[in-house]
# Entry
Amino acid sequence: CLVLPVQVEGRAITTVEGLAVGSELHPLQQAFAELGAAQCGYCTPGILLASRALLDVNPKPTRDEIREALAGNLCRCTGYVKILEAVELASTRMAG
# Structure
């Protein structure tokens, strides 16, 4: 985490567990699972939340925009291709 608790005092905080609605996974979570975009799972929550933040402000990002949005998230298990593909798939599904 890069944010101190005092910086979010009085604000709503979304965790990766809060992305799902009931038993239905968020489209990002579903796409990551389907495409095998998560390996060990250590970095996955941060990547999912950064991806959601991106899609909240830019529903149809280019691959370069996705790369830029996720640049602060390091993953030693994957080559990032599946992660980028999962964000693109979720973006398409969320657009309808």
In short: Residues 6 and 13 are 12 Å apart (CA to CA).
